[in-house]
Structures are given as structure tokens and as C-alpha cells.
Amino acid sequence: METPNKLLYIDREAVATLAMARDGLLQPVTKLMNKQESEEVNKTGFYKDSIFPFSFILSPAGKRNNAVLKNAKEGDTLTLICENKECGTLIVDSVFEINKDERIQKIYGTNNPEHPGVKDTYKRLGNLAVCGEYTVEFDDIKNNIKKINKTITNLEAKNVSSIILSGKPFHRVHERLIRTALVKCDLLIIFLQKPYHDDGRLSYKVRYETLKYFLDNFIPKDRVILLPLENTYIFGGLNELTLNSIVSKNYGATKLIIGQNHAGLGAYWDHNEFISIVDTLETLNIKIEIMSEFVYCDKCTTLVSTNACPHGSHHHVKYHNESIMELFRLGIIPPAILMRKEVSAIILSELYPSRKATLKKIYQNLSTSSGVIDEFKCEDFYDGLMHLYQTSSLT
To answer: What is the CA angle 319-320-322, rounded to 5?
Structure first.
């Protein structure tokens, strides 16, 4: 391993972000920006005549990193270290100072430490940025691009749509968005946001599992691709929709589908004209379709668009993610109108693994039997319980 003055320590989030640029997902940005480029992008919001909301730089925090960058000279080769392992190299072109407050303001639109991303990002940013040619060990993106290109060729797909989900949790409205999108496209790419910081709600593993269960059992497999989307801090601010559009386009999508309550969907007044952020993204050459809000109407007794339902909001049950998660945290199975019972079973099994022995005993006492003895899974209990809830009396 190199001497300490040649080691630059970065985290997994930085590795993934560098790989995204290297592999073309952030085009026209394909490399780290120098000081002049960085200042120009921050001032204009453009890079090589294309929209890009803020500078693309590497500025890792830490006393060791600061010392290494202070002493770095043009042409030096730095070894990139992630989680105590070599993960790449960087040949120094230049090192320059950055203003952390300005960068965070540019990304999040605020420096308020109460903002969920500001405090964390401030900790991970250093005062010096380095640019130069780099390599990183991260092949997931290249493999995903090959997979998409192969599928587009096989299907001769012209209309390729994308949806970006967090799946916390995956509920009936997500199902409707996917089905509606499939009607209008040849291929649908679903990106499931993959965070690098656990928010204590649902693991990425179980979110991926619930979405994959739905796609495997209720959607034509040959027309849908499910991929992880590295959810780095660059997606965390007011420019989320812009970055989502850039990444979707560079993955091969011709349309990005979002809900009308998307966090990055804003509007502003300019010279007495009301402009949506969608209007500013026209030059990216990807269509953005805004889906209306879906609710369950107790009069229509089905999932409906608020734009197509004649009944008032007092008849509508909204799909509030945090409220649904609160039911799970209380150990309560959400109603089937909110979530598919099999999905609920997967989530509850993940949240309460220590219940298995107790649930097995209850399941044996209350459920019917096929006569075949299979290994008990917690999902069996929750699935069977929902079946009992939906069983009606004959009298």
C-alpha cells in the first residue's frame, strides 16, 4: 500500500457517485471538474451547454485527507481507500479550495442543519477539492447499462419509460403507477433508490424483495427491468428531479414518470410568468409525465385518481407512507386496500424476526392444513391471518 501521504479516504457513496460519472450516467459530466469549471457551473447551472445544477467535485472530509491534498502536486497518483480497502486511483491535476456553505446551499437550497441532508453532507465535505483522471472499482452500473441496452434491442423498444421509487413501503399506488406506465411504453425501467445511510425504516433488501415479488407474480417480466439506483447525496436536494431526469435519460429512457407530489417538483415566477421546473428541463430531451394523485374512494370502492373521482376528499383514503409504516412498527397488518397482503407479510417478517416461534404455534392452531408439512416461514402466518380476516360467515 502507498505511504500515508498518498492515500485519500472516501466512502461508498463517493465511490458510487464517481462511477456514475465515469460510466456516463451524469453526461455531459464524465469527470471531476477543476476550479474554473466548478465556479462556472455553480454560477450558470450549465455544463457544456447542458443543464447541470451544481459542480461535480471530490472533496472528502478528514484531517488525513486535508493533509494529503495540501501536499499533493500535479501528476501525483493518489490511492483511493474505501472501508480500509483500495478502491481506485486518482492522478492529481489540481487542488483548490471550496466554500462548503455555498456548496450545500447549491445542493439543498438551504444551510439549515434541521434539513435531513444538510448536517450529514456538511460532515462529509472537506475544504479542499481535487480533480484529475480517476479509476474506481464499481462495475454494477456498467452491467446495468448492458442489460438495458440488450433488452431494448431484443424488444425493439422505442418508448422506454422510467420510474424512480423508494418503496418505503411498496403499496397499491405504486402498483397502479407501474401498470399505468406499462400501457404506454414498450419497456419500463424501475429504479429502486439504494441509500448509503439507514434511516431506520425498511432495509433496502426487504424493499427490493417486496417490489420484486409484485413484478414476478403480477407483471409481464419481459417488459420490466428492476435496478438499484445509487442514492447518493447529490439526489437529496432541490435538484432531485433534474438529476433523476439526467440519469434516466442516460440509462436509455425516453420518459420519466413522477407523481404530482414529487419532492423536486417546484414552480416559480420569472418576469411575471409562472414556470414549472419541468419547463426548465425541456433541453434534456426526455419527456416528464406527471401522474395525478391516487386515493382509495369509499364510494367508488376502488383506487381512483383524484382528477377522475366525483366524490369529496372526505371519502378518500390517502396512501401516506409514514402512517402505513407506523402500522408496521406497531405490528399491525395494513388493510388490503393499502397494501397487498403478501407484501405486508414480507415486511412484518423482516421487522419482527424474533416472533417466529410464537407465530408458528398460533399458525398451527388457527390455520387450515394441506396435509403437507413444509418449513414454517413468518410470512405464512401473516398471509394466513389476512385470509381469515377476509373470510365471511355463511349465516
So the answer is: 145
Q: How far apart are CA 230 and CA 218, in angstroms?
A: 26
The pLDDT tens digits of the residues spanning 157-209 come to 999 999 999 999 999 999 999 999 999 999 999 999 988 776 667 899 999 99
Residues 6+ apart with CB under 8 A from 17: 230, 232, 234
pTM: 0.86
CATH superfamily of the 4-136 domain: Sulfate adenylyltransferase (3.10.400.10)
Contacts of 276 (CB under 8 A, 6+ apart): 265, 266, 267
CATH number assigned to the domain covering 140-291: 3.40.50.620
Contacts of 95 (CB under 8 A, 6+ apart): 69, 70, 72, 128, 129, 130, 131
Would you say residue 373 has pLDDT above 80?
Answer: no
Enter the C-alpha cell of residue 296. 382509495
